[in-house]
From TrEMBL:
Protein known as: catalase
Domain of life: Bacteria
SUPFAM superfamilies: Class I glutamine amidotransferase-like
Cofactor(s) listed in the protein's UniProt record: heme
Source species: Enterobacter cloacae
The encoding gene: katE_2
Keywords tagged on the record: Heme, Hydrogen peroxide, Iron, Metal-binding, Oxidoreductase, Peroxidase
PANTHER family: CATALASE (PTHR42821), CATALASE-B (PTHR42821:SF1)
Top-level EC class: oxidoreductase
CC terms in the record's Gene Ontology section: cytosol
Pfam assignment, any one: Catalase_C
GO molecular function ontology, one term from the record: heme binding
């Protein structure tokens, strides 16, 4: 992108929110002018200074209907986990996206067939609101660079992550202590309590308590 385009975008942001403009400018290596730093804040529109309808955080614990959750499939995925996840998501109007290392179908541990919606690389974590890893052959995921990167990126972007059964081995890759941390749901299997914790995190949108760790994540 041409330099003048970056400068123009930063200037537009300075007319909206000087702190946001400064943050973007720092990352782009741009120095704000004194004129930009002293711009008057935007005037109220029809007497409205802030509209809660435009904020994801204005109503804590709001509806999660329409959110998208990625389910990272593995070889011999535990079918009962996937079934429990899909049923729980459906009750909340949350969309599930089944991902795997290749397109096609995956055979679960009970012989049932799961259709793959996209690959790990083809539908990055940027496109979802949370990630769930059901139990199964977790070694196949731990040795898959795309799957590991998927979780690292989701973690870095402060998204909720849920790990069932042996999938808790991913905590080491995320540098999460054995006792766990806020924003990481874990359990021996997928049950009501497991999904309720995930829904609570989805309603909060992001795991802000993780912010201090993101610069350490290689994603």
């Amino acid at each position: 992108m041409r330099t003048y385009i970056r400068e123009r975008v930063v200037d537009q942001l300075a007319h909206i929110d000087i702190q946001l403009a400064q943050s973007v400018a720092d990352n782009l290596g741009i120095t704000l002018t004194d004129e930009q730093r002293n711009l008057a804040p935007p005037k109220e529109v029809n007497g409205v200074k802030k509209d809660p309808a435009l904020s994801l955080y204005a109503v804590p614990g709001g509806s999660i209907k329409g959110r998208v959750v990625a389910i990272l499939l593995n070889d011999k995925t535990r079918a009962s986990d996937v079934l429990g996840i899909m049923q729980a998501l459906k009750t909340k109007g949350v969309h599930a996206k089944l991902l795997y290392s290749r397109m096609g179908e995956v055979t679960a541990d009970d012989g049932s067939v799961l259709p793959v919606a996209a690959t790990f690389a083809g539908a990055p974590s940027l496109t979802v609101d949370a990630v769930i890893v059901p139990c199964g052959d977790i070694a196949s995921l731990l040795s898959n660079g795309d799957a590991v990167y998927y979780l690292l990126e989701a973690y870095k972007h402060l998204k909720p992550i849920a790990l069932s059964g042996d999938a808790r081995q991913f905590k080491a890759r995320l540098n999460v202590a054995d006792q766990g941390e806020d924003g990481i749901v874990e359990g021996d299997n997928v049950d009501d309590a497991f999904m309720t914790r995930l829904f609570d995190l989805l309603a909060a949108h992001r795991v802000w308590s993780r912010s201090s760790k993101i610069d350490q994540i290689p994603a």
